[in-house]
Amino acid sequence: MLNQIKGLHHVTSMAKDARNNNQFFTKKLGLRRVKQTVNFDEPSVYHLYYGDEVGTPGSVMTYFPFPNIARGRFGTGEVGVTAFSVPRGTLGFWAERLAEQGVTGISLDESFGQARLNFTGPEGDSFSLVEVPDDQRAAWTAGGIGAEEAIRGFHSASLRLRDGGATEELLKFMGYEEVDSDNGVKRLGLAQGNGADFIDIETQPGVGFGQLGAGSVHHIAFAVEDRANQLEVRKALMDTGYQVTPVIDRDYFWAIYFRTPGGVLFEIATNEPGFDRDEDTAHLGEALKLPVQHEHLRQQLEHHLQPLDAA
Q1: Which string of DSSP letters, residue by residue, matches 183-222?
Q2: Could you give the C-alpha distances from 223 to 59, 178, 237, in angstroms and in order?
């Protein structure tokens, strides 16, 4: 069993409208845009990152906004719900705020003994806020939401699978342990994680596979401290039979990818070097940052990409 995984690093999804996506996460959820760059493989498209003040691993939601993308078809073989942690007693505040902001799909329930507020994103994406009484992670408060209510980072993510057995074994190999079950959903967690510690497995054998599109999660990333730990994880996964990519430099972290038995794309990402490698912390996310291989496209991209903060 591996011990290098420290919880979630980031979750990356697909969107259609970059400006609406930016407004939803920065204005409605009060997160910080910690980086605006481009998709390394398709530089005509943004890669937007939202999180806490510095983009701490375990707090970062990221998006590829493709202007002409169709809406995704939700199903199995993908991430279902991405859940954020908020302080205990704040769901009333959030329900009122999100309703006033025009957010849809709002409902209150309880899962694994915790109060939960469910809602949908601009593309129909599924989110929850979960009350966590002892989450000590620092909140970003310059987004207009006070420290008593603000999001602390990820709480969990769910995987919708036709058969959860092999993916459950993979997660246990990665250091997770089963901690609870609720209404047929298994929760796996890390004892010494970064706060974004839980993965829920929803087994839905009669549901067809999802189709990637706007509102779909593209991949889910798990955190390791550094490149040395990442290489250890890569070797262990390959020794177990997984097809893992070489290490890829993503400027703000190094990444490896592999497809899970249930069809979900997993990434293992390093905590180093971080989002302040090319911007001062006080100005994260303000300027368009391009990887060196695409810097020659700057003038073209600045003309082409949709302004994020326009009225």
Answers
A1: TTEEEEE-TT-SS--EEEEEE-TTSPBPB-SBT-EEEEEE
A2: 11, 19, 15
Helix (H) / strand (E) containing 300:
helix 298-304
Q: Would you put residue 292 in left (φ > 0), alpha (ψ -120 to 50) or beta? A: alpha
257 closest CA partner among 292, 285, 207, 220: 220
Distance, in Å, from the CA atom of 297 to the CA atom of 277, rounded to the nearest integer, reads 21
Nearest to 65 by CA among 81, 79, 49, 77: 49
For 185-219, the pLDDT digits (tens) are: 999 999 999 999 999 999 999 999 999 999 999 99
**Per-residue pLDDT at 309:** 85
Radius of gyration of the chain (CA): 18
Report DSSP state, residue 143.
Answer: T
- Taken in order of first residue, the domains within the chain and their CATH numbers are 8-304 (3.10.180.10)
Token pair recorded at residue 209? 């596979």
State the pairing for strand pair 185-189/126-131: unpaired
What residue type is 266 in one-letter code?
A: F
pLDDT value at 310 more than 70: no
pTM for the whole structure: 0.97
pLDDT of residue 33: 98
Residue 235 CB coordination number (10 Å): 11
**pLDDT at position 311 over 80:** no
Cis peptide leading into residue 273 (ω within 30°): yes
Other Cβ atoms within 10 Å of 226 Cβ, number = 13
What are 83's two structure tokens?
């859940």
